[in-house]
Amino acid sequence: MEKLTFTSPVFGPIHSRRLGSSLGINLMPASRKVCNFNCIYCECGWNPDPLQPKKKEESLMPGRETVALALEKKLRMLAKEGKSPDAITFSGNGEPTLHPDFSGIVQDTMVLKNKWSPGTKVCVLSNSANLDKKGVMEGLMMADLRIMKIDSAIEKTLRIINNPTAGYSLQRTVSLLKRFGGDFTLQTMFLTGSIDGKVVDNTTGQELEAWFVLVDELKPRQVMVYTLDRQTPAPGLKKCPAEKLDSIARVLKDKGIDVIVAG
Ligand code: SF4
Question: If residue 193 lies in a helix (H) or strand (E), which one and from where to where?
Answer without folding.
Answer: strand 191-195
